[in-house]
Amino acid sequence: MSDKEYAIRQFALLKARIQKAAAKAKRNPNEITLVGAAKQQTAETVQSFIDAGLHDIGQNYLQEAIEVQQCLQPNQVNWHYIGQIQSNKTSSIANHFDWVHSIDRLKIARRLSAQRNADTPLNLLLQLDIDDEPSKGGVAMHAVADLVAQVSQLEHVSLCGFMVLPRARQDPTEQRQPFAKARELLALCNQKHGLHMQTLSMGMSADLEAAIMEGSTMVRIGTDLFGARSTPPTGDALNQAAT
Ligand SMILES: *Cc1c(COP(=O)(O)O)cnc(C)c1O
User: Which residue CA neighbors atom 11 of ligand 1 most closely?
Assistant: First the structure.
């Protein structure tokens, strides 16, 4: 099978899976955006998936994202930054992406707003620390409502909703719990601050059905779209390769 045929098949499989999950949840599948989580994928692979119909690409690493973007024609797709953010990278992130899913501090949101040069606002999502796992990043749940109030005031960004990255759960019913919590908090923050945030970025390869049941509007899929990622070489292997 060629790369192009593979991309067409994988894209069709994922779309069918989203449609089936939406039907089960009695939702319109067009409300659910498929974001291809393209970490470690080459520009050629990403282009094959764009040709197959993918409109949204997610990237975790700025340098890797810029390298891929430079190989592709501009303005074909929406670019989503989904990785952790260092404050010295905000200027590039503000101007190489359409969406940032991983906002967890006011300082970062302020910098992105100040550094955005495009005519259109940068779309932001707050990443919630939904399972109290601070090492993954994300706003502590008790601090979310206040951060919503602050970020929603910024000028060159548009606060659209939340992103969650829950810990792995096997049981489909348990998988739904963190997603339900995110949905409820979004409604509460909208009500409290008079906002109309509508985006819930939740669901990956292993739990997209559970996320769609709980109202996900963006699923971020890596493995089940592009295929399994190769594990990066260990430090030892790198050292050996260098000698
Ligand atoms: C890698 C990644 C995904 C996709 O994960 P898969 O399990 O491969 O589908 C989604 N979101 C984030 C933030 C990621 O880093």
Answer: 220
